[in-house]
Amino acid sequence: MKAITLYEPWATLVAMGEKKIETRSWATSYRGPLAIHAAASMPKWVRELCPKFAKILKIKDYNGSWLYYLEHGTGPFGKVVATCDLVACLPIRTKDELNEMAYADMGENWYVIDGNEYHFGDYTPGRYAWILKNIKPLPEPIPAKGMQRIWNWNNERMCKG
């Protein structure tokens, strides 16, 4: 199965169904099943976003939230946390920061990105919106060594169980 590594908390946001669009600086022609892998590390600049994300998700007790635990080094680091289907890769054409919206080009139509989704990605024009469907969190995250770009995950443990 193909896989992609995301920093936390984005991998967990996908697994929770809160993030259905992954943004990247590069396009892919791949469509099909995709495993979501949580990176083994969480850079400082990412940890600094956790309080903002907690506010967006309306988490009242931030000290007890999953974001807090991710920020402090506990969580599914270095593990596959979900599977999904990558169904489209759309170029981002415009961004309206005033109205907190972005638009991805679907050819004759536009895909509107707003709400929490807008805050969980980088919708700078020239980037790409990877549309994820059929997101299924794993009952128990599976350890795996991640890589950059799309990589092949030997999901032997999933096939057995």
Automatic annotation (TrEMBL):
<protein>
    <recommendedName>
        <fullName>ASCH domain-containing protein</fullName>
    </recommendedName>
</protein>
<dbReference type="InterPro" id="IPR007374">
    <property type="entry name" value="ASCH_domain"/>
</dbReference>
<dbReference type="Pfam" id="PF04266">
    <property type="entry name" value="ASCH"/>
</dbReference>
<dbReference type="InterPro" id="IPR015947">
    <property type="entry name" value="PUA-like_sf"/>
</dbReference>
<feature type="domain" description="ASCH">
    <location>
        <begin position="4"/>
        <end position="106"/>
    </location>
</feature>
